[in-house]
Amino acid sequence: MRAAVLRDGRMVCRDDVPEPVPGPGQVLVGVRACGICGSDLHFAAHGAEMLALTQQMAGMPVDPGAGVDLAGDVFMGHEFAAEVIEAGPDTDTHPPGTLVTSLPVLVSATGMEPIIYSNTTIGGYAERMLLSAPLLLAIPNGLDPRHAALTEPMAVGLHAVNKSGVGRGDTALVVGCGPIGIAIIAALRNAGVENIVAADFSPKRRDLATAMGAHRVLDPAAGSPFDTVHPAVVFEAVGVPGIIDDVLRRAPVGCRVVVAGVCMQPDTVHPFFAIAKQINLQFVLGYDPDEFAESLRALADGDIDVTPLITGEVGLDRVGAAFDDLADPERHCKILVTP
Fold first, then answer.
1. Phi, psi for 136 (deg, rounded to 5)
2. Which of 269, 220, 218, 260 lies closest to 242, judged by CA?
3. For residue 290, is it within any domain?
4. 134 plus 158 within the same structural domain
5. Each residue of 275-328: pLDDT tens digit?
6. Residues 133, 158 share a domain
7. Residue 70, in any domain of the structure
8. Taking every annotated instance into account, which residue ranges of this chain make up the domain Alcohol dehydrogenase-like C-terminal (predicted)?
9. Residues 48 and 168 reside in one and the same domain
10. 276 & 178 share domain
11. Cα distances (Å, whole numbers) of residue 93 to 28, 143, 180, 236, 300
12. Biggest alpha carbon–alpha carbon distance for the chain
């Protein structure tokens, strides 16, 4: 079987991956589409650091990097839509041919493993993979599986919006219009928020923000967004050092700041800014099962159209080049792998 794997910091295509065999409660599926996520790009570039930082954290219910050896090939791909091929022993599930998506988690006799990066659990950058039967969601309403593959990043955006407590009449400012910022904009628009402002240096990303529901877009090169916007909620979706501190410095009194951007470097903030202005600072990650299901429903019902996000499709042999291409915001937003 063919699969794209991370090897020595680069994505390469293998054609000798053993065929996965479903066990009890598991389903073998054929991958129809898998989105390349920013966290995959982060792991390819900063895998050792991410694993080291994860091991330092206490209180995590699941360690997504447990047992990962960067000296071996690493399977990735967690934004997927697939077709049921066969079920494991004593497993009741959808019939073969059903299009499905799922929370990126595989349950087995040995426990639960996130489908994010692993030396053993195959992800969506492959021809076939295993999923957990109880977690499968059938793709409804004839939704294109390429669009259904973006259920996962849309759920990340929905989770950030739900955590923010934003109201319909609030002004929401989204700083950074990469895939997560765009998902936040889509969720805000779907929630009926009446004043959504987006800021990004990239003209292409600003156009995309408008297409996905922003009422107004700003170029930070022309001046701080806070010069003309008085937001009730700010969504930070950039993830580079200095952004959080700058937001705290410029945000209005009583503002709520939701941090969705993943910064891999140490960062410095001045707590005085947040204290003096009584700013509520919320960090967010992922989503819950209900938010995942709600995002799939929104896509299937046409409440959110992710067509503008998809800027490229590649086969397994071009995943490495796609990782490189995604570094240029003027070229791409979301590239799908279609095995």
1. -70, 140
2. 269
3. no
4. no
5. 999 999 999 999 999 999 999 999 999 999 999 999 999 999 999 999 999 988
6. no
7. yes
8. 179-300
9. no
10. yes
11. 11, 20, 32, 40, 21
12. 62
The answer to whether the CB of 135 falls within 8 A of the CB of 21 is: no
Same domain, 17 and 126: yes
Contacts 24+ apart (CB under 8 A), 263-268: 263/239, 264/42, 264/46, 264/49, 264/50, 264/239, 265/240, 265/241, 266/241, 267/241, 267/242, 268/241, 268/242
User: What pLDDT shows up at residue 108?
Assistant: 83
- The string of pLDDT tens digits covering residues 227-251 is 999 999 999 999 999 999 999 999 9
CA 174 to chain centre: 16
Q: Which residues in the chain land under pLDDT 70?
A: 59-66
How many residues are listed for the chain in this entry?
Answer: 339
Number of domains in the chain: 2
- pLDDT at residue number 65: 60
CATH number of the domain where residue 255 is located: 3.40.50.720
Shared domain for 20 and 133, answered yes or no, is yes
CB contact at 8 A, 130 and 1? no
Q: Which domain holds residue 93?
A: 3-138+306-337
How far apart, in whole angstroms, are the C-alpha atoms of residue 105 and residue 131? 7
* Per-residue model confidence (pLDDT) at position 60: 66
Residues 311 and 235 in one domain: no
CATH of the domain at 328: 3.90.180.10
Residue 308 in tokens: 């503008």
Mean pLDDT, the chain, whole residue set = 94
E strands present in the chain: 3-7, 10-14, 26-35, 74-76, 79-87, 99-102, 105-108, 111-114, 117-118, 128-132, 136-138, 171-175, 195-199, 216-218, 233-236, 256-259, 280-283, 310-314, 334-337
CA 237 to chain centre: 12
For residue 284 the two structure tokens come to 């967010």
Residue 203 lies in a domain: yes
The answer to whether the beta carbons of residues 216 and 194 sit under 8 Å apart is no
With H, G, I as helix, E, B as strand and everything else as coil, classify residue 110: coil
Residue 126 lies in a domain: yes
The residue written with tokens 């996965």 in the block is 20
3-class secondary structure, 87: strand
Reading the block at residue 73, the tokens are 């090939």
